[in-house]
Amino acid sequence: MAEPMVKLQGICKRFGGLEVLKGVDLDVARGEVVCILGPSGSGKSTFLRCVNLLEPPEEGEIFIEGHDICKGPKSGTGEESWELNFVRQRVGIVFQQFNLFPHKTALQNVTLAQESVLGRSKQEARAKATELLERVGLGDKLSQYPETLSGGQQQRVAIARALAMDPQVMLFDEVTSALDPELVKEVLDTMRELAEEGMTMIVVTHEIGFAREVADRVVFMDGGVIVEEGPPAQVLDSPREERTKQFLGLVLER
Amino acid sequence: MSEFFHQYFDFTVMGDHFGEVLDGFLKNLLVFVVAAVLALIWGLILALIRQLPGKRFVPLRGLTIAYIDVFRAVPILIVILLISGSLPFLDFLPKSIRIPQWLGQPDPYWYGVMALTLVYGAYMAEVYRAGIEAVPGGQVEAARSLGMSHGQAMRHVVVPQAVTKIPAPMLNELISLLKDTTLVGVIALGESVLIGREIQSETFNSSAYILAGVMFLVITLPMARLVDYLIKRNRGKITRGSHIEVA
């Protein structure tokens, strides 16, 4: 196998006395779509947030495109020892709560960081943003403010905003959990298209159907460790571990 | 009863001295406008320093917090008297700072502006802080995830949202500031209350005070109404916003 796009080794994270991640390893190949499932409190969101250092891990190593993003010795404290810029230029994230900038239009949400971080010109950023917003089906909403958009539309703007930075990897943190049921599909469709185009994606989700259909690999986490991983058919249909069976039983019962 | 009325509402006294009191009040306004602009800027600087992240800035943050605490806790009059009573004698400073007479205004004017800026900067910093803390943490996370630095996130994302949340408390501070400009009369700036005192000691009649008070009311009452209006409008906005999010 070629060098993994993202390689995480022995990731540990504590919040106060609570050990949320207890040594998690994960390799994600270029173009691979990995879905992480697990009960709430299993550490899956924290793990995802470790990848782009929103929650810097206390122990463990992270390689992106083979590059060790931890500079010098790990003190387990400040952000200084991490190569934040390297990571955030390559890794995009979409959040459960969208986190669009409410004082900016859809278009400005997508152009802001292009101009201020990448130094693109106004026209260049605008062209890129327009193209991306059209791609996620919002070409007619450019000048609207987030509060006038539905949750599904807001989430698609958020996806366009992340894509505008030309990321190598996209992280999705329960992006459909805050949406009304009828709006989930439009967001999942956008993600499906992205996967088909070959984007490397790590997706924390409760959408078993999406995982089954789109994921190359499914990872089941519980209690801060990876319990089981493998192709969707194997993990979802004939799980080996008792905990996976229990969880899937509860989720699929609904 | 009529003696009482004349003591406070002698229209002859008011009429005779209207021009002087108004001149004094214009000085109050002039102190207010300059001190308000400076305090709004100084307060924002203090609030931003207070938000600097990381261990590196612990001393600077501590110093800023100490400044804000002390200047909110000390009587403004002491600050005014300290500045006017000591600045002229600090020989290592150039004369233009020891005895400032910029823009044609006398030194008591500038001592007053300095003192009010120092004190109200601290108050404003607290107002800004409330606004900054009212911006959801997800906003900073989103900005940082897009690669923005702390400063860029503050400038493009946090501060623009913070200031929309605080016009009402900000205006309250500005009302207090306008009233506190009368304290500068103590160091012989001829503002409306000092003029009123001079008239009172000449005429043994308090009507000039009432006149000055009315002039303040003309400005401060509409400001107080505006605060109420802004609070109501903001409440409407919040309800509308959450409604849309649910929809």
Short characterization:
The complex is a heterodimer of chains A (about 250) and B (about 250). Chain A is of the alpha/beta class and about 250 residues long. Chain A has helices spanning about 45-50, 85-90, 105-115, 120-135, 150-165, 180-195, 210-215, 230-235, 240-254, and strands spanning about 5-15, 20-30, 35, 60-65, 65-70, 90-95, 170-175, 200-205, 215-220, 225-230.
Proportion of residues in helical segments of chain A: 25-40%
**Main pleated sheet of chain A:** 6 strands, mixed
Radius of gyration of chain A: 18 Å
Question: What is the overall silhouette of chain B?
Answer: flat
Structural class determined from secondary elements of chain A: alpha/beta
Q: What is the element string of chain A, with H for helices and E for strands?
A: EEEHEEHEHHHEHEHEEHH
Radius of gyration of chain B: 22 Å
Average of per-residue pLDDT values of chain B: 90
> Termini of chain B, distance in Å?
64 Å
- Mean pLDDT of chain A, nearest integer? 90
Ranges of chain A with pLDDT <50 over ≥5 residues? none
Q: Note the quaternary state here.
A: heterodimer
How many H/I helices of chain B?
Answer: 11
Count of separate DSSP helical elements of chain A: 9
Instruction: Give the DSSP E fraction of chain A (strand runs of 2 or more residues).
Output: 15-25%
Distance between the termini of chain A: 39 Å
Largest interface: A-B, 31 and 25 residues
* Extended strand count of chain A: 10
How many E strands of chain B? 0
